[in-house]
Amino acid sequence: MSGQINAFEMAQKQFDGVAKQLKLDAGVAEVLRFPMREFSFRIPVRMDDGSLRVFQGFRVQHNDARGPNKGGIRFHPAETLDTVRALATWMTWKCAVADIPLGGGKGGVICDPSALSTAEKEQICRGWVGAMWKNIGPRNDVPAPDVGTTPQMMGWMMDEYSRLVGQFTPGVFTGKPLGSGGSLGRTEATGYGVIYHVREAMKHLKMDPKKSVAAIEGFGNVAQYAAIGFVELLGGKVACVSCYDRHAKKSFTYSHKNGIDPRFLLTIVDEYGTINQAKAEAAGYVVEDGDAWITKDADVLIPAAIEGHVNGDTIKKMSSRVKLVAEGANGPCTPEADEFFKANKIFNIPDFLCNAGGVTTSYFEQVQNDMNYYWTKEEVLSRLDTKMTEAFKGVVEMSEKEGVYMRDAAYMVSITRVVKAMELRGWLAGTW
Ligand code: GLU
Q1: Contact 325, 333 (CB under 8 A)
Q2: Residue 430: predicted pLDDT
Q3: Is 70 in the pocket of ligand 1 (CB under 6 A)?
Q4: Nearest atom, ligand 1, residue 143 CA
Q5: Which of ligand 1's atoms lies nearest the C-alpha of 87?
Q6: Which of 104, 274, 315, 351 has the most other CB atoms within 10 Å of its CB?
Q7: Does any ligand 1 atom lie closer than 6 A to the CB of residue 329?
Q8: Domain layout of the chain by residue ranges
Q9: Which residues are known to be catalytic?
Q10: Residue-level pLDDT at 238
Q11: What are phi and psi of 404, to 5 degrees?
């Protein structure tokens, strides 16, 4: 799905670079370069027209040294096992950098959810659990939503798992709907988490948020709340957002001369992140090509769509005003883009640090499920802010101490924590 580079090769390349700098033992590096377990399975679905269609499902468990595997399930037409491997690997680093006691996993189904009926989607969700239920659970692997999946889908999946094990088990999936074991604040969590990092990075770079402009790629869950957060929590302006239009089957950029109003756009976007173009134009929005978002005159870029979109080609169009890139998506910037940022002293908040707010709140959701006692939204978001701020500071300290780029520093923090956990569990002493 990365277009230019295989996402798993990219994840391994990033890891290899840091493993070398950390002088990691070759055997230990070999353990971490690959997922520990992978599942690939078929999900038969009786379609509404009576035909039988078979969907391909995946789950990859990268590493569970620090706790149960954790990570979303994506429903996407271009899903591949390699993309899921990359995303599972990044989840291990994400949970470690946020210092939550969880490992890394990711799942997927090759399908286009916008082309399926509710009943068909429910069957895919229940079929996914039917294939995986013996290998997931609150103590071994806890999936969540991601691109193309929703809280309702997590509700069905949790129900199917509970039915199969004969016990109400809310902690097996996170990102569930409110009223069915979900946590307040989970909807906002990833986007607001991005903004807590942006706030800390701006303090570090001595930038004034109120005088800053952001350009955002995407208008799914992460981008929506990053846009709202940039405007409402930081007082900045958002020049544009982009979105994949499922009717036109291409992306568009939406900008407004006064800055976009994310709360308004939220009223005209469908559940798949497609903005109603006619309504946007009627409200004075300018609609351009999907790549136009990166060309906007902005101080901050927030790529919050999917992997590989900030690459050797698109960075050539980037405004020279950009000082900060906050990676809301997983893997949005390719190694070529990284080289460009390093050469031009552009501060980068790497994906698995920047978007860790989602999984951190998933962890809070699980904690609440275990206690069977639920926090207020303020409580959830304030705990999230504390966690993200601490994580950001830890990575900046590492970056300054080792004189390395932020992505490498985040890897150093994470890899060190994961290797320590493997050591403490005796995994590196010949028990494998
Ligand atoms: N899918 C989100 C991510 O990539 C959240 C994962 C989770 O909550 O487990 O971080």
Answers
A1: yes
A2: 61
A3: yes
A4: 9
A5: 4
A6: 104
A7: no
A8: 19-171, 187-349
A9: 106
A10: 98
A11: -120, 160
**Equal CATH topology for 19-171 and 187-349:** yes
β-pairing verdict for 347-349 and 324-326: parallel
Atom of ligand 1 nearest to the CA of 355: 10
Query: Structure pTM?
Result: 0.95
| Centre of ligand 1 from the C-alpha of residue 286, in Å | 32
Assigned architecture for domain 187-349: 3-Layer(aba) Sandwich (3.40)
Q: Which residue has the tokens 């005159």?
A: 297
- Residue 187: count other Cβ atoms within 10 Å of its Cβ: 20
Please name the residues in contact with 255: beta carbons below 8 A apart, sequence gap of 6 or more.
239, 240, 285, 286, 288, 292, 296
Ordered mean pLDDT values, 10 residues apiece, the chain (432 residues): 71 94 95 97 98 98 98 96 96 98 98 97 98 98 95 98 98 97 97 98 98 97 97 98 94 97 97 94 97 97 93 94 97 94 96 97 97 97 98 98 96 98 89 48
Residue pair 308/285 in contact (Cβ under 8 Å)? The answer is: no
Tokens representing 37?
């377990």
The 10 Å Cβ neighbour count of residue 20 is 10
Does domain 19-171 correspond to CATH entry 3.30.565.10?
no
Q: What's the confidence (pLDDT) of residue 146? A: 93
